[in-house]
Amino acid sequence: MPMLIRRLDFWRNKTKHKKNSETNQRLKLFKENGKVLLEDLIELCNGKSNPIKTFSANQILEATNNFSESNHLIRFELMYRGILENRPVLIKRPIWKLYTSDTLAKICRDIAVSSMVSGHKNFLKLLGCCLEFEYPVLVCEYAERIPSNTPNLGLGMRIKIAKEIAIAVSYLHTAFSRTMIHMDIQPSNIFLDSNGTVKLSGFCLCVSIPEGETFVKVDADRVEGVLDYLEYKYVTTGVVTENTDVFSFGVLLQNLLTTKHRVVDCCSDDERMPEKFVSEQNVMNLRISDRVSKFVEEGRIFEILDPNMFESMDGDENQERERQRMEAVIMLSLRCTGNRGDVPKMMEVAKELKRIERWT
After folding, report:
1. Which residues contact 71 (CB under 8 A, 6 or more apart)?
2. 79-84 vs 87-92, strand pairing mode
3. Tell me, what DSSP letter sits at residue 130?
4. Going by CATH, does the domain composed of 144-357 fall within 1.10.150.20?
5. 3-state class (DSSP) for residue 157
6. Catalytic residue status for 184
């Protein structure tokens, strides 16, 4: 019996020591991560930010059933569905396994900017974060990512998505003392809530331009983002301006309305290519924005538009009106990417999309 008691005491002490060690580690991470987050908030908004609620690691683990696969929403990304405080939430956990020295800074930037814009309906609302893991975890309102298979979306919905994202980016550019540049406008950062409201998210790469300045320069050797969405000037010089976002948004417009893969794949095999494409091998090596510009120059704009958008159109008059709306959006996208005329401000882009949306 004494031997059994001693063993029980040993395991109690060991369990207690483990729990104390885990608690101390979480407290240490909370302080370290919180310090970086606070510094970012002070830089971006002079410390006058919206309060950020913090959740414990235990709450996050319980909400996601210990990050179970059954709650894992998006392949290749650690986004989980969870229930927290009796409401569905979207929990974003960093997946960056190729960690860099500034990984923590990027996550804290995502939290900081999310907290600044959470009052606007076209941003994914931040409900809080957890600082007790190695890298902070974000807790957001629940929403679904926009469908990757845009053929399921009608023209009206595509224009609505574009318009509401344009409104969100305009807000980033104009609502704060420092102009905020998103730097990663692309489909994977766009969500839809249950009411069909479009939400912009993903501020890890967000850059702020100092007050009174129109640009900021970053290290050109550390340019990041999805290549087709990156403005040429930013890629080559590291100079970030409002136009950096406008360019990305223009490419987003083109991907919403065109069949990007159809344009690319038609030149993958010379023997099967339609004759009219044989002479265009070099064109297909261009970036998306340049390919679209090339087709428009040759008067072949409707060859690259997604044919699924035409299937639900009844009557010649209706089809003609919708074709005009599509062409107007494509031409606007070329202005955004610098292929046609002066590059507009995002506020101008939002107004133009509202006008196009109202066409009857």
Report:
1. 64, 65, 80, 81, 82
2. antiparallel
3. E
4. no
5. helix
6. yes
